[in-house]
Amino acid sequence: TSDCALELRCAGSQYSRGNIKITGTHYSRVVLDSSATSNALLSVPIRANYLAFDGVVFDANSKANYAVNASVEYCPYMTVRKSTFRGGIVAAFRAATYVSTFSDTIFSNSKVGVQIVGVGSNIITSINFTSCYALSCEDIGYDLGLMTYSNLTSCACDAAKLAYYFSSARGVVMTACGAERVGKLIHVHTYRGMQINGFYSLAGGGTAEAPTEHMIEFGAGFGGVVSGINIEKPKQYIYKLGSTGSSYGFEGITVLDDSISR
Known about the structure:
By secondary structure, the protein is mainly β. It has strands spanning 2-7, 21-31, 38-43, 52-70, 79-81, 84-96, 100-103, 106-117, 124-125, 127-130, 133-153, 156-202, 212-232, 237-243, 253-255. The protein is globular and about 50 Å long.
């Protein structure tokens, strides 16, 4: 097992180095073809500010844990657009970042589509996902860590056990997102202000032998707001929405319409 196929290094202090843009023409493709298993097709082992991916395809080809791994140090102010990351054994794309934007990007054919984490147990802030797509992920489409004041807009997930997972959501909004052919839609482990506005699901749920207990699950917390949930042609599930964590009697989820009714 080798560490990586490509490694990105930047000169200068941790506060000045960066401004590297990886740009492709007509979705230029980088595919890992190796007999050995690597940690990452592209590894960013240091802090790199303003790292950008534009119009590229990074395919780990199931030969590396990640197509891109930029989670050793924070890589803030990241911009990812019109790109594809696929074929990671663990995840297609993993980054520790804040104040970053992901748009028109595909994360596919991996155990997890995209993982956004903090360094250590720190939070991640001001993350914007717009029109992104997690496709054919064995476990989770979007695996999001201690997320604060962030949003997902018009994002999609097809073919996963769980579409969207939030380890913690504080001041987070999902608007006009959806999922198809997934076992479970959303799991918010803990929350302090989490809104889900206009969510569409097609052919989601479990089996007759193992139905999904909660299609949308809120754990411990308060300040949850839900509206506009549309679950079409579902498979087997017990509840559309559940509150499963203890906040010592202060749990609070407000449903603004009748979309959760049976």
